[in-house]
Amino acid sequence: MSTPSDPTAPQVPVCPRHPDRASYIRCQRCERPACPECQQQAAVGVHCVDCVREANRNAPQARTAFGAPLREGRPVVTLTFIGLCLVSFVLQQAMGWQWTGELAFSPAAGEIEPYRFLTTAFLHAPGFLHIAVNMYALWVVGPSLEFALGRWRFVSLYLLSALGGSVMVTLLAVPGSPAWFTAVVGASGAVFGLFGAILVVLRRLGRGAGQILVIIAINTVIGFMFPRISWEAHLGGLLVGLALGLAFAYAPRRRRLEVGVAAVVAVGVVLVLAAAGRYLLVA
């Protein structure tokens, strides 16, 4: 037999999120009871988790000097590019030319299979020196640019620099010559694009770039040590990186998104038209 509760007895406050828990401490914002699990210590008093979440949602997001959201943790995009290169390198060792030959770029092959303009950036020459130097350079430069520029601008910079390297090879190779049919491989074009961009970024921030210049010099020397690594790809990537770096670093504060998107689209269109025009002249 149940006993009816006394309506005049004082009601025990309970946590709205956990009605089975008595909560005598109230949120300083909404004044609702908050159990220990739902309490967040504030500068003055205690806030409930709902009020803290709402305050964080409405607070201005911290941004870098170039307008990118300020992130903590691992450089996800940089690690992804490194991982793709390493996986591809393992497949090169396991499958030999069967893998490399399907993805490597030459001006002649690129005319028939345009995807090679980009896929060749995930291949490397035999041995470990080429990929080791490129991945080291990517690890040194990539995280700083990824955090400073933001992920979408960093991805655009990397891929368009890789594309720029292949396009420059196409523009400078003589049709019908051995260079027209020789495969070139490597992430060097993309890496040199990062070099170009970080030089601009460091300049914009008023910092020195001595270490980056040393890395550029080392990669340039490496480029002359292997037959399928071309200085033309380095040059193309570097020019793209400088162009996008200027657009990203010097865009007006209130027009960063618009300028960034416009720069990416413009550089992409120029590269595609340059390659297409070259092939039309050859035809």
Give a verbal description of the structure.
- The structure is a single chain.
- The protein has 283 residues and is mostly helical.
- It folds into two domains: 13-50, no CATH class; 80-282, Rhomboid-like (Rhomboid-like fold).
- Helices cover 61% and strands 2% of the residues.
- It contains twelve helices and two strands, in the order E-E-H-H-H-H-H-H-H-H-H-H-H-H.
- The chain has a two-stranded antiparallel sheet with strand order 1-2.
- A hairpin with a 4-residue loop joins strand 1 and strand 2.
- Helix 7 runs antiparallel to helix 11.
- The longest helix has 27 residues, at 256-282.
- It is elongated, with a radius of gyration of 28 Å.
- The chain starts with 38 loop residues before the first strand and ends with a helix.
Number of strands: 2
Major sheet, described briefly?
2 strands, antiparallel
Low confidence ranges: none
The CATH topology label of the largest domain is: Rhomboid-like fold
Total of domains: 2
Q: What is the CATH class designation of the largest domain?
A: Mainly Alpha
InterPro entries: Peptidase_S54_rhomboid_dom, Rhomboid-like_sf, Rhomboid_protease_S54
Keywords: Hydrolase, Membrane, Protease, Transmembrane, Transmembrane helix
Domain Peptidase S54 rhomboid: 113-249
Protein name: Protease
